[in-house]
Amino acid sequence: METRTYRDAREKGQMTIEYAVMFVAITAVVIYAATHFIQPSVNSFFNGTAKIINKSVEEIENRFS
């Protein structure tokens, strides 16, 4: 009976390690995607917004100068 319990515990530990490895792999893929695909889009969005704001500020300054 002890052998069966030891085997079950070992298999459960093995499953836990497999889940941990999968979690790490998925997390790595998400981080890679965020830095290589999402970040440029976000930077582009904020740069475009900053250009619009700067242009508006320049127009307001020109009107009141």
Distance between the termini: 91 Å
Major sheet attributes: none
Number of helices: 1
Q: How would you describe the shape?
A: rod-shaped
The beta-strand count equals: 0
- Percent of residues in helices comes to over 70%
Strand composition percent: under 5%
Indicate the mean pLDDT.
88
The Rg value, from CA coordinates, equals 27 Å
Which structural category do the helix and sheet elements fall into?
mainly alpha
Note the run of SSEs as H and E.
H
Oligomer: single chain
- Catalogue the unreliable spans: none
How does the SSE layout of this entry go?
Layout: H1 2-64
Task: Please provide a written account of the structure.
The protein is 97% helix and 0% strand. It has 65 residues and is mainly α.
